[in-house]
Design brief:
five-stranded antiparallel sheet
Amino acid sequence: MTWERRPEKDFYFRMTPFDGRETPWLWELKHRPSGLTVCERSKLPLSSAAVWGHGHVISPEMFVAVHVPPGERQSWTRSYEFSSI
C-alpha cells in the first residue's frame, strides 16, 4: 500500500482472522524519498494484524494468540532489519 500524500487523520485497520498456526510472516516499510527501510520477519502463531498511524507515523502490529497451560511455555521469533539504499 502507498500514500500519495501524508494522512491528515488517524487511521487504523485490522486484518482478521488468522488461524493461529505458526507460519512465516513478513512486512516492510519503505520511506521512498530517503530509501530507508525497516522489515520484520517473524515465525509466530498470528491471530490478527493491524496497521495504524497519523501524519508521518505508521505502525504495523502483529498479534499473537497466547494459550499457555500452567507449567507450559510458548515462544516465537521476530527479527527486524534496517537498511538504506
